[in-house]
């Protein structure tokens, strides 16, 4: 125990985990991850470029989509160094300062993405409920204010976490179960009382992801109520079809996040491999799939992308 207490903050490191038992094929797995990252970055960058350069796409729905693409880019870039470091160079060590910085960006961007999904749900609600006033309700100024407000909410709530973690003493050989740092894992490595971090972490989850998911559900209840009041069956299907992409994005984001949170809470009884794989799904799949789904489902966006590449 004295060794633990003598461990200094500056000399302590965390050990990240790849996929245990698959070390022999880490190089081949790295090829898959590289491909995922390239597609994620290229797909989201293309969406951003097309929306920015095409004035006809300067509509609320596409502005929110560009916000989602920017957040997905940030999440991909935040995880690239440590994941590829493990699988390409077997570099598992990460300093506490680098770990705290990484978890700050990962959690901030995750909560911003949750907020963007909420804004996109509100966008679909307004478009279906009041299409004639859609552009005036969601004007560029209002969109910018809402986006800034939710971004500040996420950053302000996450900002104290690195400082709360920095005050702890950490045991040697702190092995994390992912290829990146998460607050709920790092705080359990501390040789100190983590009650404050645990309570504050729960408060953040409830006030961001919990509230956002509840409001998204409420938005879709209102959307469904509005759609059912439409007399024409064709118009009902058309209205619901505009929500398919967003529903896919919501499921891709919230399903692995909730699953990972449950596995962390019941860590002793859960499979370590399942926890690791779900962690990769949580971080890698949404940035990969979101631009593909929106490009496929949005005829206008798809046509602009095809036109840009043909030129």
UniProtKB/TrEMBL annotation:
SMART domains given in the database record: 7TM_GPCR_Srsx (SM01381)
Stretches assigned to the G-protein coupled receptors family 1 profile domain: 43-294
Gene3D superfamilies with a match to the protein in the record: Rhodopsin 7-helix transmembrane proteins
Molecular-function annotations in GO: G protein-coupled receptor activity; olfactory receptor activity
Keywords tagged on the record: Cell membrane, G-protein coupled receptor, Membrane, Olfaction, Receptor, Sensory transduction, Transducer, Transmembrane, Transmembrane helix
Predominant localisation class: membrane
Record-annotated membrane-spanning stretches: 25-51, 63-88, 100-122, 143-165, 199-223, 244-264, 276-296
One Pfam family per UniProt: 7tm_4
Membrane topology: Multi-pass membrane protein
Superkingdom of origin organism: Eukaryota
InterPro entries: GPCR_Rhodpsn, GPCR_Rhodpsn_7TM, Olfact_rcpt, OR51/52/56-like
Compartment(s): Cell membrane; Membrane
Gene Ontology CC annotation, any one: plasma membrane
GO biological process: cellular response to lipid
PANTHER family on file: OLFACTORY RECEPTOR 56B1-RELATED (PTHR26450), OLFACTORY RECEPTOR FAMILY 51 SUBFAMILY AF MEMBER 1 (PTHR26450:SF29)
Family: Belongs to the G-protein coupled receptor 1 family.
Protein name: Olfactory receptor
Underlying gene: LOC115645604
């Amino acid at each position: 125990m004295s060794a633990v207490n003598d461990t200094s903050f500056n000399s302590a490191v965390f050990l990240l985990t790849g996929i245990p038992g698959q070390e022999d094929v880490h190089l081949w797995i790295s090829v898959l991850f590289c491909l995922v990252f390239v597609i994620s970055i290229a797909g989201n960058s293309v969406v951003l470029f097309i929306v920015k350069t095409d004035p006809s796409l300067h509509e609320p729905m596409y502005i929110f989509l560009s916000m989602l693409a920017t957040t997905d880019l940030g999440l991909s870039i935040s995880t690239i160094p440590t994941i590829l470091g493990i699988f390409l160079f077997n570099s598992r060590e990460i300093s506490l300062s680098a770990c705290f910085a990484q978890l700050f960006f990962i959690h901030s961007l995750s909560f911003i993405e949750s907020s963007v999904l909420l804004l996109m749900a509100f966008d679909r609600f307004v478009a279906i409920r009041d299409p004639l006033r859609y552009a005036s309700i969601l004007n560029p100024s209002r969109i910018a204010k809402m986006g800034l407000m939710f971004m500040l909410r996420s950053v302000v709530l996450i900002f104290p976490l690195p400082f709360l973690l920095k005050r702890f003493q950490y045991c040697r050989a702190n092995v994390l179960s992912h290829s990146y740092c998460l607050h709920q894992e790092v705080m359990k490595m501390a040789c100190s009382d983590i009650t404050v971090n645990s309570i504050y972490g729960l408060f953040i989850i409830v006030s961001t992801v919990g509230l956002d998911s509840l409001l998204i559900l409420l938005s879709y209840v209102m959307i469904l109520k509005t759609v059912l009041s439409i007399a024409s069956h064709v118009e009902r299907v058309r209205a619901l079809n505009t929500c398919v992409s967003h529903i896919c994005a919501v499921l891709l984001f919230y399903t692995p996040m909730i699953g990972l949170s449950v596995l962390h809470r019941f860590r002793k009884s859960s499979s370590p491999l399942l926890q690791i794989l779900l962690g990769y799904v949580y971080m890698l799949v949404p940035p990969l799939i979101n631009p593909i789904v929106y490009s496929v489902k949005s005829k206008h966006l798809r046509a602009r992308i095809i036109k840009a590449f043909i030129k």
